[in-house]
Amino acid sequence: MKAKRTLTFGALLLSVVAGCGIRPTGVIDAGEPVTGLTKGMRIYFASDTGLRGVSRPDLKLHSLDAVIKLLVAGPNASEQKSGLTNLVAFDGSYHVSGDAHRVTLDAQDTYLSPDARLRNGQLVCSLARAQAALHPKLRPDDIQVTLRARGDSLGPYACSYFLRN
Question: Has residue 17 been placed in a domain?
């Protein structure tokens, strides 16, 4: 009985050592690894877990003001079903300007609060992403966004500030 067990264990060990029958191949080049943020336009909406970016791959962006219109329009039906909502609203006119690594939102008729973390994050992250989309050599993480309203100024902020928990 002991000899049979030893023989069975030996056969099992031999099959494990022999491998699975797949022969080794040489190195296959698959190109550069993926790094950093994804390319293209993303709009950020609020969820119960924080900010979530949604892709707008077919969007042809021509100005930063257009991003505000997209935010105010809110998430589409599918995005709403997945728990996304819009917290951005404006009481009057607004203008967004950008100069390389800096973006400024002027919305003098709108109340902005430093305590409205998700709302401010929607604005900052969406505007930073748009500036990077308009200027492909820029990274969204390198862009600082300032929010101005009713004489108050918030920021400058980087999007990463709002994506941390």
Answer: no
pLDDT digits 0-9 by tens, 54-82: 998 877 888 899 999 989 999 999 999 99
Look at residue 67 and tell me if it is in a domain: yes
Within 10 angstroms of residue 7's Cβ, the number of other Cβ atoms is 10
pTM score of the predicted model: 0.74
Quick one: pLDDT at residue 58?
79
Q: Exposed, middle or buried, 67 (CB in 10 Å: 0-12/13-18/19+)? A: buried
pLDDT tens readout for residues 95-107: 999 998 999 999 9
Residue 150 CB-density burial (10 A; 0-12 exposed, 13-18 middle, 19+ buried): exposed
Structural domain containing residue 61: 42-163
Q: What is the pLDDT of residue 128?
A: 96
Query: Cβ(61)–Cβ(134) under 8 Å?
Result: yes
8: in domain? no
Pairing mode, strands 144-149 and 102-106:
parallel
Q: What's the token pair of residue 89?
A: 């609203």
- Whether 95 maps to a domain, the answer reads yes
Q: Using CA atoms, how far apart are residues 122 and 124, in angstroms rounded to an integer? A: 6
State the total domains in the chain: 1
Rounded Cα distance between 151 and 107, Å, is: 10
